[in-house]
Amino acid sequence: MFDFFVITPLGFEEDTYKEIQLNLSLVEEQNFTINVVKGGVEVNCSLNAGLCLNQRLKLATRILFRIEKFPVFFFNELDKKIRKIDFSKFFKPDDEVFIKVDSKKSKLGQEKKIFAVFEKIFKEKFKKIQIISKASEVSEKTQRLYVDIYEDQCRLSYDTTGEPLYKRKFEKWNHEAPMRETIAHWGLIKMMEVLSPWSEPMNFIDPFCGSGTLVLEALEFNQSLNRSFSFQKSLLLSQGKNFFLDEVKPLPFIKYFAMDLQQEAIDASKKNISIGLSPDKVEFILGDSLDLKDSFKNRDNIPSWLITNLPYGKRVKDQLPGNLVEILKNKYDVKIMGLFHPKKWQDKTAKKTIHYPVENGGLKIFFSVLVF
Known about the structure:
single chain
């Protein structure tokens, strides 16, 4: 059994815990343990299962493999202990490695000097290795080593992920104020906790789709990430092995509708969704989604599951109408509605309303879920 640390956005720890538990159970992983801490989830499981969580977790940022943990008080002591560790399982002689050092409340408080110790030893062990100290110099090919010294305890971690997990694919076309994929996925989970999309046939609608993140996350909700990870470049025994070949059922929406007033947004959505799964299930509509003259209501007499990242701040010159919820509900025959916005949206006819605080791009907003 091996120790992993799954890094999550603050506030997503409990939901990530559930996601990890579900996926480890699906592969019948035995005797695993999970512990929630601030900023992430500690996992003890088999090597293959821990590595392959990279393919399944949609709320996490990255997954670290715990290499070693030991007490350290002096630099000569640090030097001796590092030299005893076999890093060849993680790094190749000609790798490019970013070493991130963080030291707090410890006698070894000089981060630059700590970095220099690691740099010297790595260059002795791997003759052609390139060591990077600045995050701005990191690229897709860069391997990462995390050095965390806290209260004289040194913890070394290998980043098994590489590019953050919210980068579902390395190439994406963005429109203004794009939503991070982890937040979009979290929003879908919060809505599913209130009303199951399997409860009755429904359409999926994003009336302000932007670059299509919410639609794409829904289309690929239960699918493994189809991208590369750092652990596949390492010499770990299980590189490339996939435990998650048998996919869970996709969400059961009849049709997906992506709408926006701007042609640039529709173009970006089409490009992003075209490289995903089942793009033929998506209908793109250019126009004002609040314009009641556009007769969309009761199309095929199928109710809607509606979720959107509403325009706010510099994205809009005029305020959204106060009866926005009523307009959307009536126009699209909505059963459940999820709205990302700094404002808490209400409606008297809603059977249930929940407001979840969340951060998007550093801005504190709410995700309002209304059930009708």
